Automatic annotation (TrEMBL):
InterPro entries: CHP03843. Residues 120-133 have a biased composition (Acidic residues). It comes from Actinacidiphila rubida. This is Phosphatidylinositol 3-and 4-kinase. Residues 120-168, 292-312 are annotated as: Disordered. NCBIfam families: SCO1664 family protein. Residues 139-155 have a biased composition (Gly residues). Transmembrane segments: none annotated. Signal peptide: none annotated.
Amino acid sequence: MPAPERVPEVGLIAPGSGRDGIGAADVLLRGELTVRGQIREASNAVLYCEAVYEGRTLACVYKPVAGERPLWDFPDGTLAQREVAAYLVSEATGWGLVPPTVLRDGPYGEGMVQLWIDVAPDDSEGDGEDASGTEDASGGDGTGGSGGSGDGGDGPLLALTEDTEPAPGWKAVVEAEVGEGRRALLVHADDIRLRRLAVLDAVINNADRKGGHLLPALDGRLYGIDHGVTFHTEDKLRTLLWGWAGEPLPAEARPVLDALAAQLDGALGARLGELLTAAETDALRARVRHLRESGKHPEPSGDWPSIPWPPV
């Protein structure tokens, strides 16, 4: 596969319907796909593309199945389908946490195509510390910055602090070694957008919720990306969003899970059955049922590393 140059920065493209009622998913699914670059840091083949349909052009990411590296615990050639399944479940929640994602043929065969989302600039970059005394741990590369606490706002989503307890507006994740014998506490913002993602990750059994997979957009929305290692039948939840572990789910999650359970017994379940195995869709229903019955965020099982590596 040719190796195009590194993709340049592009602006945010809203995921809603465009002119003439053509939605982003329509353009991604039916548009002419042209490769413009490659994301070289990714572990699998990730190509930056343009999709053109009915006079509308969208920037997007194309991950061909042929470029997927084999994994020991997931069937070969299934990551693209899992990414699409994660989008469908996200849409069923009504939270819109995953950019529009489709499965289609492309220049290098069948693959996942997802709307490109550029992130908001990190206002804290350069000062190294925010008002609560936590050092910015977003990475400074635009993939983990600008989040906030409460109902969402400006500020980092992840941080390191040398305090033993998180400051107000933050939730503790894990204590980490930061070099020269120093230890710091990794924290994430107590942000409703992150909390919704934590619920979604518990539903889809996300084995890789890194900080770099959090995209705070220019319009204040937060998106999660890279959902190829999801929907396993075994508990493989690995995430940086453990701050609410064992706490009651937010009130808004309860009707969402009820509606999701009903949809899994209908059209959504049938569509997911085309992307996942019967055992995986059954395990999905079981996770939703467990969350509804427990009413709590899950806790690390102890049978599987709870933090992805690298974490950011």
